[in-house]
Amino acid sequence: MLSLGARVGPAIAQGAGGTLVFGLSANVGNLVYGPSRGAAQFIVNQQIHRGLVKFDENGTIVPALAESFEAVDPSNYRFTLRDGLSFHDGSPIDSATVKASLEYLADKSTGAAIYSALSTLASIETPDAKTVVVKLSKPNASFLDYMADPNAGIAPAAALAPGAANWIGAGPFKLQANDSGVGLTLVKADTYYDKDSVALEGVRFIFYPDSSARTNALLAGDVDMIDFVGWEDFERVEADSNLVLDAVPGPFVYTMFNVEKAPFDNPKVRQAIAHAINRDNVVAAAFYGHGEPLYGVPMSPGNGRFDPKMGDLWEYSPEKARALLKEAGVDGLKVSLLTSSTYSFFRDMALSMQADLKEVGIEAELDAPDWATYTASKNGGKYDLAVAGGAPSVTGPVYLQAYSIGGPASSFGSYGYDASEIVAHIQAGEAITDDAAARTEYMKAVEVIRDEVPFLPVAQRSQAFAYKNTVKGFKNVSGFLSITGTGYMIEKAKVE
Amino acid sequence: MSDAARETVLSVRDLSIDFLAGRTRKSIVRTLSFDIAQRETLAIVGESGSGKSVTALSLLGLLGPRATVSGEIDFLGRNLLPYDFHHLTKLRGNEVSIIFQEPMSALNPVYKVGQQLTDVIRNHTQLSVDQAREHAMELLRKVRLPTPKTKFAQYPFELSGGQLQRVMIAMAIACRPRLLIADEPTTALDVTVQAQILDLLRELQSEMGMSILFITHDFGVVADIADRVLVMRNGEKVESGTAVDLFTDPKEDYTRELLSAVPSLDRRVGNRAVQTGTDTVLQFRSVGVTFAGRRGDGIRALDGIDLSIHRGEVVALVGESGSGKSTVGNVAAGLVRIDGGQVVLDGTVRQGNGADASRHSPGVSMVFQDANASLNPRMRIGATLRAALKWARRSKPELETSDEYIKRIMAEVGLGADLFNRFPHELSGGQKQRVGIARALSVKPSLVVADEPTSALDVSVQKTVLDLFGKLQREHGFACIFITHDLSLASNISSRVVVMYRGRIVEQGPTRRILTAPSDPYTRALLDSIPQPDPVLQRARRTQPA
Amino acid sequence: MELTTYSAKRLAIGLVMVVCVQVIIFLAVQVVPGDPVEAMMSETGNISPEIVAALREQFGLDQPLPVRLLEHMRELFMLDFGTSFQYSQPAAAIIGSRLLVSLELVVLSAFFGIAAGIFFGSWSVQTRIGNWLVSALGPIILSVPGYVAGSFFVLALSLWLGWLPAGGMAPISDPVEHLRRLVLPVLTLSLPIAATIAKVTRYSILEVRNQDWVRTSRAYGFSARRTFRRDILRNALTPVLTVSALELGGLIGATVLVERVFNLPGLGSLLVSAVSVRDYPLIQGAVFVISAFYIAINIAADIGYGFLDPRAARR
User: Fold this and answer.
1) Touching chains A and B? (3+ Cβ pairs < 8 A)
2) Contacting subunits of C (3+ beta carbon pairs below 8 A)
3) CATH for B1-95+178-256, among 3.40.1010.20, 3.40.50.150, 3.40.50.300, 3.40.190.10?
4) For range B254-283, the mean pLDDT
5) Fewest CB within 10 angstroms: A347, C44, C163, C269, which?
6) How do beta strands B179-183 and B211-216 pair?
7) Which residue of C221, C308, C309 is in closest CB contact with B124?
8) C269, A209: Cβ pair inside 8 Å?
9) Are C216 and B92 a contacting pair at CB < 8 A?
């Protein structure tokens, strides 16, 4: 721990696929089983660990440790494990291992990120060493999404305790050196079930928490690839012919309302805001133009349960906004707008909105504390309007539920909002196996969202990886999965 | 004493020194010539600005790049001009040594005295460190530094001024120089210490046979040590001759003027009538003052002082540095907290340990020793005086603060109205001290504390300032505590003398009695140490057994 | 007072101060709004309130404040800062590895900055070029903020010229690369120190040069060089020491930005990120180390005065 030189150790043998040097956007400390620690940790998790299923480059769920899987019905899932699975240390993986891991994640005291999916766990049956049958008390069509989450890897028994280190997994790479605060050195694991298709000899993560330092490292050739390219750096990367900027529409930003008190307890006022915000300006101000305006709910491209109409709920029309405000009988509104000074795009988005609100006669006073104070204010309902960011970990419309349910029950939703109607429609959709039939149920929920505006999606931001053009086979997965799915692409990459 | 056959050590011919001040050249010394023979002591006497110290420093090329020195400086047959700094480096501290006025600042504060001495020895000899140390210890014994072994390992700040001057002398004689330049070496010292240092120099001279060039402004010291005297004024020689001739038969008016300005004990005693009112202005009753040390050990600055000052009376407070005489003045002015006894001023009582143990007393004004430091350099004279008046008006609302009043006061101390808008740096030393007196006077005090008001001034200036002060005192009739280390001065101005030693009053009484029939042995020693401006008398005193 | 007694006393006071700082920072950081769990679970995943509650319990945040403070002080006594919320590692270990980086940066920058400052300050008194350099270039250096200078160096020396890497840390086992990567950050940090120290040295020398003992030194036949070293520079160093101690204290703060620009895993950037997500164990541990460092510098400076100026030790 106290040695400066623990990072590299012996040089990694250069194999056919080379070693990928990856400039990672955050420090990753110890991996701990269960809780979420943010996007950078997801990427590391996805190299070390592996769950029953994973996402492919199109966002489709494909087998991982499970050789095959089957949704018997939306509350009944059957997984068949591959032959000869083992962890990096050689200990075998069978249905009992999987059962222990899933039961651990279903225990809320562990703080597991996917607890919400497993809270309805009824039973896990292991008829034989290769078969796992998961039974839920309530239908959940998105269950497999959760099983593909970066935090749903199968872990050995030693990791199943709060705070225990979780460095031994079943993923494509194993940890060789952990240089605290500097980086991680991973080498290809020969225990991996699909090791023959992994070309890379290893991955070396170097932590670059500062966005421009990260871009500089790529420009200077110190690293092969970086994640989370700052929007202000897009042009710099694109200008370099040796580099590839791989940007996709990613997570989204939205506005929350405190519906506990006037004026946002009135749906008309919320609708007015939905028409008042100039999304193009937000994209220009917050993301340097690198993003997509949203006039409806954001949708994941690979998922068949969305209806294109869900993306077309509101329009930018200050006249309509003014008319709605007049209809609601409010005039000369003064509201507080909560944002955070920690992230410049949060602040810039709020500034852009402030101008739009003024246009329709609402004076918004900015409240921009640091991140932790912001979350406390947001979760405590200490705001009228708030800007927020969303990165759903599931691809289906079920994600809307978490953003609709009001705080304090859900930290993503508008404070005090009662979303029982929306939840009822979504749950009905989740119970239907057929995508087309389910779509009509989801659409009913979205119509409520259109009229009630429990939260207001504003823009989908560009999420970019950037890499040298000698890196082949990598692809940034489009949509929300840019955060939770792209990590699975690293094992397909090679450095020429 | 003078022996024509003796070898001439130093012969200076037509020495001229210019200083570059900005773009102009200023002549400091002009065509000065003098000789010093072996074993001879030549004293150069003059007031500040006469060029005596510059002459001394020029001999060793210590004047710096702004000075141009021309003429001839012949040292043992070698002409030192133009300076060959390589040669000078070998000469300095070796064949020619120099000691300075302020021993405390002439030694580097961060090195132990023994080391500084050893460094000098090793700089000019091939001695090993141990041998040099050995030699340094010998020298310290030779200059009669008490407890030399302890002092050897102490820093300059741990030694007294007299002890440091002994160390400087040890440094100067370390390489048995042929010529010792002594630039006002006793001016900063107490009179008893001065006598000892002069004795030491004389003794070393006779033992080592060196010549001494002695720079001083004090005719008492001249009479005590010089074989021959050179009087300088404005960079030129006024006259020179043997000490006896000069004192008994001065040829030049300026020399006579200087000699007459010297305060002398014998001539002036009792010039002032003992005139005391019965009205007591200030009374000390067993006053004690302790200055806190850092480790809780206090320094007892005053111990059981009983003292009364009557209206219209001038009391001289005499003692050496550290005797507590200035502290008495500060207590009277309410600047120092007393921790025992009580002080009664104009009927107001201040109690030791009371809340008012230190409180500024509006009836007291002070005249300070360093007139320069007591004036704000950024304030015009008029403004300085007005500020004092405004402050005093808080307790004496009847005071005037008009420009006319201020100018009137200035005229009273002999300052023209044209100085009203001048800054302190445009004034001479004597003028600045007059401003100090004007400031003290302007607030119509009942008591003036004058803390060595003339000791920074030249002897002729000192006399006029003193005369002025006496005149003003008689006219205004304020009581006065006149603090001085100089008994001669005390005899000139006071009707009563209080002698202090180590925080106590050892003797007090009418000036005439104290000076003629002192009862305390310390007072006697003090009187005996005062060099008299009469070489014959001095020689006679010296031959008496101590 | 003896130097040892003096040092021991200063040390004891220093320890008390460190403990006071700990209590203050503990209360300050926990009273400020913001919850570590909520802050960390910010943007990703579907975190329900029950999970937040579970994690709070895991981190011991459900205990009342006085209990946590007592527990913290007990742990602190054994130099245990607890487990970092963000990194799930012992805070002491994280801080330990980061501290080495920061210390290396601070020590190298202070050394080169102070050494260059004293050199140029001395030089400026002796030559016209030196004088010009210190009085003209110094203010320019001082007016450029560290992160601007750092970004400029990255742009010029690594992105355009490609002479040095843009940032990051190399292991000490590869000393050449390790030092190569430290060149730019150390340059960035030491330049303003050098400018300040040069200025202080210059004025201090100009003042000491007129002191009587310097004349004594010349009057006793010491060479100009020896006089400068023995009687001018040595005495002139006391104010330089004072300013150096202040600069060294300021360095810890200045490293934060430089660590970001050059992607160095130091204590400053660790503390900043810890504060933004309210990672209490890390904040408290880092503040402990930084306050101890500050106080140690001050003690060292005080003891240094004792060596440079014997009067200081006796006062």
Assistant:
1) no
2) A, B
3) 3.40.50.300
4) 68
5) C163
6) parallel
7) C221
8) yes
9) no
Of C219, C231, C315, the CB nearest to B294: C315
The distance of Cα A45 from the centroid of its chain, to the nearest Å, equals 14
pLDDT at A7 over 60: no
What CATH topology corresponds to B266-363+445-535?
A: Rossmann fold (3.40.50)
At a CB cut-off of 8 Å and minimum separation 6, what does B24 contact? none
pLDDT single digits (tens) A398-444: 899 889 998 788 888 999 999 999 999 999 998 888 889 999 999 99
Q: Which of residues 220-279 of C touch A (CB under 8 A)?
A: 260-263, 265, 269-270, 273, 275-278
Give the whole-angstrom CA distance, residue A276 versus residue A258: 17
Tell whether B97 is within 8 A of chain C (Cβ): yes
Would you list the domain boundaries of chain B?
1-95+178-256, 104-174, 266-363+445-535, 373-444
pLDDT in tens, B135-178: 999 999 988 888 888 889 888 888 888 889 889 999 999 888 99
Contact (Cβ atoms closer than 8 angstroms) between residue A116 and residue A126: no
Residue in chain B nearest C223 by alpha carbon: B89
* C218–chain B Cβ distance below 8 A for any pair: yes
d(CA A150, CA A361): 45
- Give yes or no for a contact between A410 and A402, defined as CB atoms under 8 angstroms apart: yes
Check CB contact under 8 Å for B294 and C211: no
Nearest partner of B188 among B104, B99, B100, B102, judged by Cα: B102
Q: Which residues pair with B481 in a beta bridge?
A: B315, B449
Sign of the dihedral defined by the CA atoms of residues B27, B32, B37, B43, in that order:
negative
| Cα–Cα distance for residue pair C86/C272, rounded to 1 Å | 13
Q: C219 and B171: CB-CB below 8 Å?
A: no
Alpha helices in B209-252 (DSSP H): 219-225, 243-248
CA A371, A376, A377, A381 dihedral sign is positive
Strands A19-24 and A202-207: parallel
Burial letters for B333-352: b for 16+ Cβ neighbours within 10 Å, e otherwise? bbbbbbebbbbebeeeebeb
Set of chain C residues whose Cβ sits within 8 Å of the Cβ of A484 = 44
Which residues lie closer than 8 Å to B313 by C-beta, 6 or more apart? B275, B276, B277, B479, B480, B495, B496
Determine contact: B27 vs chain C, CB below 8 A: no
Domains B1-95+178-256 and B266-363+445-535 share a fold: yes
Whole-model pTM above 0.80? no
In 3D space, the residue among A485, A447, A57 whose CA is nearest the CA of residue A250 turns out to be A485
Is some CB atom of chain C closer than 8 A to the CB atom of B124? Answer: yes
CA distance C226 to chain B (A): 10
CATH 3.40.50.620 describes domain C102-276: no
What's the complex ipTM? 0.80
Query: Does residue A230 sit in helix, strand or coil?
Result: coil
For residues B408 and A452, give the distance between their C-alpha atoms in angstroms, rounded to a whole number. 92
Chain C interface includes B299 (CB < 8 A) = no
Q: Indicate the pairing of strand B348-351 with strand B340-345.
A: antiparallel
- Residue range B82-88: mean pLDDT, rounded: 85
Interatomic CA distance for residues A45 and C150, integer angstroms: 34
Residues of A with CB below 8 A from C154's CB? 216, 220
> Do C and A touch (≥3 CB pairs < 8 Å)?
yes
- Checking C180-184 for CB contacts under 8 A at 24+ apart, the result is C181/C262, C182/C104, C182/C105, C182/C108, C184/C150, C184/C153, C184/C154, C184/C157, C184/C158, C184/C262
Distance of CA A292 to the CA centre of its chain: 17
Query: In chain C, count of helices (H) and strands (E)?
Result: 15, 0
